[in-house]
Amino acid sequence: MANTREIQLRIRSISGTQQITRAMKLVSTAKLQKIRGIAEEGRPYFNRVYQTVCSILQASTEDVSTLAGFSAPAGAENMPMAYVLITADRGLAGGYNANICRLLESEIAEKDQALIITIGKRGREYFERRGYQVDAHFDQDGEAPQMAQINRISRYVMGLYTEGKVSGVRIAYTAFQNTLSQTPQLIQLFPLNQEDFQAEEEPISMNYEPGAEEVMARIMPLYISGVLHGALAEAAASEQGARMTAMDAATDNAGDIIDRLTLQYNRARQGHITQELTEIINGAAALE
């Protein structure tokens, strides 16, 4: 059994860790409230852009890729698929990073048929260690998604597709449900499929000037940026929610360990006191 000094040192060490995890939980809670507000504020704009895209596509008989101006060159279907992977820069977030990385890894059949674009260091480290081709990496610009970064990513992935370097583009991110539930998801950005755009409301008859093709060509970059913004915001909220839950569990576990060590310390201390009393009594009896 460890002596009382060793137990005291362990209790002190775990108490310090508990203070850190409690502070990290409070920080994550504050960040979660902020990023959830950003995600909710952006949804009405994205929903309106989405409904506009739906109304144009439903009224059009042309191929959606040609209509949007984002058709891939011939032979692009034989090129690798590009995946935009959104993870965190840091750990201590439970299974947040591992879950989305495992989902993407299970989606990829062959390593040479995947071109990975990472946002967040954890995703890049995960796939580089396993020998996958990480084509580009974008650092996180703060806790909330920034439009300058979103525009850079949007131009990069559109360039890959329109130049025929990839057969398509998919986004892997974690959708925020609540603080206890975050769901890894994989959505397709390119090629555009008319079946993917289903209006939730009755389409409104509109006249587009100078024409539906020109309007569509202007709207699609906004739609793509909106998808990226939404995915980044959802992923940021999921990260903070997962970290808050993980730190809360770590704080509770530290408390349980401290309680067990305190009980062990009291037993060791009582045993030490009992031993000293026995020695004193035996010594006094020997002098009689």
How does this structure look, described?
The structure is a single chain. This protein has 288 residues and is α/β, with parallel strands linked by helices. Helices cover 60% and strands 13% of the residues. It contains six helices and five strands, in the order H-H-E-H-E-H-E-H-E-E-H. It is elongated, with a radius of gyration of 28 Å. The two termini are 34 Å apart.
Question: What's a quick, concise take on this entry?
Answer:
The chain has 288 residues and is α/β, with parallel strands linked by helices. The chain contains six helices and five strands, in the order H-H-E-H-E-H-E-H-E-E-H.
Which features characterize this protein?
5 strands; five-stranded mixed beta sheet; single chain; elongated; alpha/beta; about 290 residues
What is the percent of helical residues? Answer: 55-70%
Counting H and I runs of at least 4 residues, what is the number of helices? 6
Strand content range: 5-15%
What structural class do the secondary elements suggest? alpha/beta
Which helices and strands occur, and which strands form pairs?
Blueprint: H1 4-59, H2 64-68, E1 81-86, H3 96-107, E2 114-119, H4 121-129, E3 134-138, H5 147-162, E4 168-178, E5 181-190, H6 212-287
Parallel strand pairs: 1-2, 1-4, 2-3
Antiparallel strand pairs: 4-5
